[in-house]
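User: Good morning. I'm curious how zinc ion would be positioned relative to this chain. Could you predict the structure with it bound?
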Amino acid sequence: MQYPLTFQEYQKALKQNRLLGLRCRTCGGVTCPPMMVCQECASPDVEVVQLSGRGTIATFTVSFVAPEGRENELPYTILLVELEEGPWIMGNLIDRDPRRIGMDIIGRRVEMSHRVFPGDKYSAGEAARPVFTIID
Ligand SMILES: [Zn+2]
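Assistant: Good morning! Here's the predicted structure, ligand included:
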């Protein structure tokens, strides 16, 4: 079985602020981040599509405790975003002070860009990850 979208390809697109996902030819569902099969129906019949990178904040948490070696990033806000196309993805909120946000950000619209985070002892090295800004 072949990966329809490799992590490497997903990363390369992220570094250009393009969010790639998989659209299922069986059920129409969209999967992101990439998996081997459709996350809705497990069909392997999927095609790579570019997603808008826009969505709404479903929920969030603020972290004051970082993994070892990443204390310099604290504090930060981790969002769970429901994308316009359906899938939910995580990413940091970068345009609000984590000490000053509250429940009122839930439901706000956001747009994705990316940041490259350095590797640490718990990861396979440097990686681009989605980050979000509130757009209205
Ligand atoms: Zn499906």
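The beta strands are 19-24, 30-31, 46-51, 54-63, 76-83, 88-93, 109-117, 127-134. The first strand starts at residue 19 and ends at 24.
Let me know if you'd like a different ligand tried.
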